[in-house]
């Protein structure tokens, strides 16, 4: 979740609690995670388009992640997920922030103060879940992310993709951090495969967030989506999407040589895909123009001047 500067936690004495990596670590038992049962008190909820899912000012018991597909509940979960008992989560997303950050919620303005009063019961930790259970939960959140993506609610989509990814990665890995090595991935090939698919979708989502696309984010997710992809025999069309999206991001950064390499690889995997062919032609034309400008500059540099 990428709204760190607009998501702050406070303890019961009013002192600000800094959000650190421990707050979103998969096997941190002190912080709230999916399927935990807790009691919360909503002190404030300001949103013109989405009403609070529970009564404001009344302490209520919730199960994190239990109400699937409801945007109001998703906003509530995004506030308390990773918090600890006694913390007040203060959220303030402004329209200009929501317009420029893919991690912001799909609402024009959202402000809330929510106190976590107690932890009623803990769900089975990520570390204790068997691969089948983790796969089922990851698929569930991925599907929700896909549905939000299709409806254009990109903030809600990325939030659900992050949760899905947390079930796929080994305990202790951060769901929001692209895998840097093979050791960050689960030993279960099904979870590895699903992780790569989620990364692929996250890259596509970021590309769709025009004009606020973050090319580095796209490249990082495509890199992770290609880890062991050949060894695990991922389908050619999936590989093509990853190379294509990485090439598009490199093109946006002006890295034409790298973009050509990745788009050519995508074209070899999906030779009938017109979008891939068109983007590859665009890059190759750009390279020719660059070469022509360079040749012209060199000629002017070494040509004898007029006398």
UniProtKB/TrEMBL annotation:
UniProt organism field: Macrostomum lignano
Coiled-coil regions, chain positions: none
Name used for this protein in its record: TPR_REGION domain-containing protein
Gene3D superfamilies attached to this UniProt entry: Tetratricopeptide repeat domain
Transmembrane segments: none
């Amino acid at each position: 979740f990428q709204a760190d500067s607009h998501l702050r936690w406070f303890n019961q004495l009013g002192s600000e609690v800094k959000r650190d990596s421990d707050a979103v670590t998969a096997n941190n038992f002190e912080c709230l995670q999916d399927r935990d049962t807790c009691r919360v008190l909503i002190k404030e909820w300001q949103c013109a388009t989405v009403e609070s899912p529970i009564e404001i000012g009344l302490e209520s018991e919730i199960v994190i992640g239990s109400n699937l597909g409801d945007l109001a509940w998703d906003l509530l979960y995004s506030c308390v997920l990773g918090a600890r008992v006694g913390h007040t989560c203060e959220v303030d997303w402004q329209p200009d922030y929501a317009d420029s950050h893919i991690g912001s919620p799909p609402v024009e303005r959202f402000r809330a103060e929510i106190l976590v009063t107690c932890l009623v019961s803990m769900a089975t930790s990520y570390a204790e879940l068997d691969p089948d259970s983790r796969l089922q939960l990851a698929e569930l959140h991925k599907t929700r992310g896909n549905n939000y993506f299709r409806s254009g609610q990109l903030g809600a989509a990325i939030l659900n993709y992050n949760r899905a990814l947390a079930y796929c990665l080994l305990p202790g890995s951060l769901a929001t951090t692209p895998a840097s090595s093979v050791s960050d991935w689960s030993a279960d090939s099904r979870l590895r495969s699903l992780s790569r698919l989620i990364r692929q979708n996250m890259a596509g989502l970021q590309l769709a967030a025009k004009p606020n696309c973050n090319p580095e984010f796209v490249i990082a997710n495509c890199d992770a989506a290609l880890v062991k992809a050949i060894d695990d025999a991922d389908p050619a069309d999936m590989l093509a999407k990853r190379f294509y999206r990485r090439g598009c991001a490199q093109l946006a950064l002006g890295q034409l040589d790298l973009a050509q390499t990745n788009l050519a690889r995508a074209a070899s995997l999906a030779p009938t895909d017109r979008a891939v062919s068109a983007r590859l032609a665009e890059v190759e034309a750009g390279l020719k123009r660059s070469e022509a400008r360079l040749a012209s500059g060199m000629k002017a540099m070494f040509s004898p001047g007029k006398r």
